[in-house]
Hints:
CATH topology: Rossmann fold
CATH architecture: 3-Layer(aba) Sandwich
Largest sheet: 6 strands, mixed
Distance between the termini: 23 Å
CATH superfamily: HUPs
Helix content: 40-55%
Structural class: alpha/beta
Order of helices and strands: EHEHHEHEHEE
Amino acid sequence: MGLIVCATRSGEASRMAQDKAISLAQERGYDLVFLYVLDPNVLARTSYTRPRQISHDLCRMGEFILTIAQEHAARKGIRASWEIRVGEVQREIKRFVQEKKASYLIMGCPSEDIWQRIFSPSDLHAFAAEVERETGVPVILVSPEEGEGGGEA
């Protein structure tokens, strides 16, 4: 049986990616896992004096986001699991899809002004191509501009 990995965060593009992942899981009969990556290096670049506390809070927020995604999938008849990884976002996503032998990676592609700190849309497309080249896993990017259907990278 195949496996769909949906790398997710909060926001409209991530919700649309979750919907696409659920739809594809229904269509193909594949398992689904939602992935949230917490990058502690992002915190190191801030002046916040309690990085351990904020890291804990962000992890709890990730659990909340993933639980909501899992419940949304369940309402559509899909049993999904979720996992949180800690590390550099691109490296952890690639590592995860390889470890899990994923059939697809689905990610939201937010608008230019929302997610600049992690991926700009052009960086995200380049990353998707890199994942496909290095792992052989097809990547589907979903953006609010493209609507429900999304598109393969």
